Amino acid sequence: MVRVRMSDVAARAGVSTATVSMVLSGRDEARVSPETQRRVREAAAAVGYKPNSVARSLRTQRTRMVGLISDTIASTPFAGRMLAGANDVAREQGHLVVLVDTEQDPAAERQALNALSGQQVDAMIYASMHHRVVEVPDGLPEDAVLLDCAPARGGRAAVVPDERAGGVAAVRELVAAGHRRIAFLDAEERFGLVASPLRYDGYRQVLAEAGIEPDPALHARAEPVAGGGRAAAGRLLDLPAETRPTAMFCFNDRMAMGAYAAAHHRGLSVPGELSVVGYDDQQLVAAELDPPLTTIALPHYEMGRWAMEVALGLRQADPAEPHRMPCPVIRRASVGPPPASPED
User: pTM for the full model?
Assistant: First the structure.
């Protein structure tokens, strides 16, 4: 394949290569008449000329690339919408995203930072598959943006979900439906999940607003998977009828799936005899349950867009405090009024 050169464009347009360079680079093009500019662009299109991106980056000191280093996002569909949001903004701005998934290997992370720095990317984003506090790795540029994680020592632009407000929204759905015996199926403390105490704070806030005395017996912890949710929900559903919860707020949708299983195993219908709210709006889980699960969505796409907008200078961020992205309620069919008591 013969490479088309700037001189070919110049010959077709009947101008000098210097004129072609000015027009196609946008540099000093005001010195060229509109008619000549039109002629040059038409000639470039006709001969199929493509600017040399390497040469252009050397000249402008911009590569039009953004490095995105993550732990396991690329291999985890759960959080893939963050990549979609970041990539959409990058594409809109004429940038290419270079993604490196490190599988939480420190050596791979160092290698990725060195490689992206060597490529002189215009910006960097450091992302996590789930909300956590991180030690910022050595070599991460000061203006890099943290996505779905917060720096242990502050001082960095970062975006995370508003977990506490999401917990508030979840439990308000249940209180609004008339429930007063509301359980929280929580993740065990050994997993060290940042979201757990924040969502629990939201749960307790709404109980206080509704004048409901928290019952420690209704705060059940388990492994945050379907099996853990089934075991925790089963323990609560085996309580005497007068103390058994009529509703459950689950740490995530997988635990909610387990709560469904526990209810069905005991002949209880959702939402007729047990209302359930999840968290995450996990793809292939929440909407596919029977009945479809009311849940709190993690704003992965919106966080990805926000991080890329900050990285490219399209919006400002306060490095003193992570930006907390709202987590909306996704209403489906798993919440209803509490079952009537025998006295009713």
Answer: 0.81
